Amino acid sequence: MALYCIGDIHGKFTELTQVLANLPSGAQIVCVGDIGLGFIDSREPSCLAEVDVMAAQKGHTVWLMRGNHDDPKIWHEERSDWNAALTNVRIPADIHRMKIENVHVIMVGGATSLDRSHPERIDNHNWWKDEAVDSAAPRQVELMVEAYGRADILITHAGPIEAEPPLARDETSFNYYSQVDPKLAEDVKSERELISSIVTASQARTVAFGHYHVSLESNKGPVRYRCCAELEPWQYVKRSILPPLPSL
C-alpha cells in the first residue's frame, strides 16, 4: 500500500480532490497541515464532501494533520464529530501514530504563524493562539517509541532546525513582523528546535513536513528531510538498512 504526503492545502479542496484522483488507488495519504479548517467557509465537515467522495472512489484514506492555519478546536474537541461525518477523510489526534503495513508513522501537528501579529489575524476567527506544537510532544513520542519501536517516518507541519529551508529564509518576515512582535524570531527558532527534539525521540530516518511552500530534500547524518510544496504529493518509500549492491 502506497504512502503519500501532500503539502499545504490552504482551503483548496477542489485542487486536493484532483490530486487524489491522480494518485494510485488504495493509498494512505497524509496532508501535512494548513488544511484551512476553521475559517468562515470551512467550519463544518461538509467543506470536505468533495474530497471525501473522491477518496472513497479511489479507496484512499486521507489523514488531515493540523497546521498553523487550522483551528485547534477541531482536532482537540471536535474530531470525533468530523470523523463520524466523513468516511475516508480522517482527523487524527495532534500527536498520532499508526502502522501502514510495515511502515511505522508518527505525526505531530501544529506550528507558529509568522504573521500572527498582523492586525487582520483575529483570534478564534482566522488565527488561533494555541496554534504551536505541544511542548509535551517529545516525551509523548518517546513513550510511543518505547511501546511500539522507532518510527520509520515522522511527519510534522514545520521543519526541524537542521532541515532545509533554514531560518534565514524567513529573515525578511521576521524583520517586518518583529516590529510589533519582538518574540517572533525567538519563538520560531525555539519551535524548530522542539521539532528537532521530536525527531530525536521518534528515531525516524525520514522526516516530512510542509509549511514553507517549497519542494526540497536535505540530509543530516542518517536522517532525510523532505519539504513538500503546496498540494505536492510525495511518495514515501521505506529505505533498506543495507546500501544497494554495486552494479556489475
Query: What number of structural domains do the residues give?
Result: 1
Helix content: 25-40%
Q: What is the CATH class designation?
A: Alpha Beta
Stretches where pLDDT is under 50 for at least 5 consecutive residues are none
- CATH level-four homologous superfamily name: Metallo-dependent phosphatases
CATH topology: Purple Acid Phosphatase, chain A, domain 2
**Rounded Rg:** 18 Å
Tell me the distance between the termini: 31 Å
Number of helices: 7
Describe it.
This protein has a single domain, classed as 4-Layer Sandwich (Purple Acid Phosphatase, chain A, domain 2), CATH 3.60.21. It is built from seven helices and eleven strands. It is of the alpha/beta class and about 250 residues long. The model has no long low-confidence stretch (mean pLDDT about 95). Helix 5 (about 135-150) packs parallel to helix 7 (about 185-200). It starts with a strand and ends in a 12-residue tail after the last strand. A six-stranded mixed beta sheet has the order 5-6-7-8-10-9, with helices on one face. The longest helix is centred in the C-terminal third of the chain and has 19 residues, at about 185-200.
In short:
Helices cover 28% and strands 19% of the residues. It is α/β, with parallel strands linked by helices and 248 residues long. The chain has one domain (3-236): Purple Acid Phosphatase, chain A, domain 2 (4-Layer Sandwich).
